[in-house]
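Inverse folding, one chain.
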């Protein structure tokens, strides 16, 4: 996949089916962000990615699959100027997955229990080849508009038909546990500053309180309260780095009642005070 090697350092949005190319010439510090549903194919190097439930190392030839919106911490652990970290990142399109599920029904793979939102898998030859063809289209924009969606659909099909298909299929079932937890996660992201009402979230999921906590932790590897805290801190960091607001204003906007508590939890998570990240 030599086309990826010509990318400058950082993350490039290609304009082909949502594909991004990530390139880093050296190991990185820990980075924290919210990952939306995606698949990341590591071409070269390695990256540690984790949640409260632990971390996985995605090395060359492996696929990192994220099925739900979850707070993630990650760092590049294998990269040099001669052999930089290279990865292809493709958003998971739920409408494409639903269409494929209707087409293939039970013909795909992946029956079984719902797994966590973050999982790691070996990329088989058909998936590697499909990613290679999608990458080639970056240099052929005339063909990309027509062929890009077709290759994107093929990648989604192969994911559904693979061992990780169980998690994706469960996500598509809005009346299933994973689908209902997905609805709760969307609600939490849309109302990040609101006080956490566990009973309301359990009702939204159509579960008892104990069942809701169990399934939420199964998917996200954390509790609803900790998930909300992670969202608030990550959103606060983005606002501070964007500039134009005081630390106190940002704290109140993301739902904290006490700027002192906000500063304490922020420093605990990011290793620096909010003022350190405040952009003038």
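Residues assigned per position:
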């Amino acid at each position: 996949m030599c086309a990826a090697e010509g990318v400058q350092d950082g993350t490039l949005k290609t304009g082909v089916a949502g594909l991004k190319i990530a390139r880093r010439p050296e190991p990185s510090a820990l980075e924290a962000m919210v990952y939306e549903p995606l698949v990341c194919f590591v071409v070269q190097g390695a990256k540690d990615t984790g949640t409260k439930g632990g971390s996985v190392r995605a090395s060359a030839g492996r696929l990192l699959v994220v099925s739900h919106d979850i707070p993630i911490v990650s760092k590049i652990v294998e990269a040099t100027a001669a052999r930089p970290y290279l990865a292809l990142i493709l958003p998971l399109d739920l409408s494409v997955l639903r269409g494929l599920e209707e087409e293939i029904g039970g013909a795909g793979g992946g029956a079984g229990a719902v797994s966590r939102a973050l999982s790691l898998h070996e990329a088989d030859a058909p998936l590697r080849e499909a990613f290679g063809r999608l990458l080639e289209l970056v240099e052929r924009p005339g063909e990309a508009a027509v062929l890009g969606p077709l290759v994107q659909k093929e990648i989604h099909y192969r994911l559904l038909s693979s061992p990780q298909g169980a998690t994706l299929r469960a996500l598509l079932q809005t009346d299933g546990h994973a689908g209902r937890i997905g609805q709760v996660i969307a609600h939490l992201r849309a109302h990040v500053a609101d006080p956490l009402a566990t009973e309301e979230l359990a009702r939204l999921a159509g579960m008892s309180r104990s069942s809701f906590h169990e399934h939420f932790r199964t998917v996200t590897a954390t509790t609803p309260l900790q998930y909300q805290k992670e969202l608030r801190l990550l959103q606060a960091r983005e606002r501070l780095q964007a500039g134009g607001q005081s630390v106190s204003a940002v704290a109140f906007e993301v739902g904290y009642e006490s700027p002192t508590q906000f500063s304490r939890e922020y420093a605990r998570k990011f290793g620096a005070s909010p003022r350190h990240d405040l952009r003038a």
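The mean pLDDT is 90. The CA atoms of residues 232 and 254 lie 5 Å apart.
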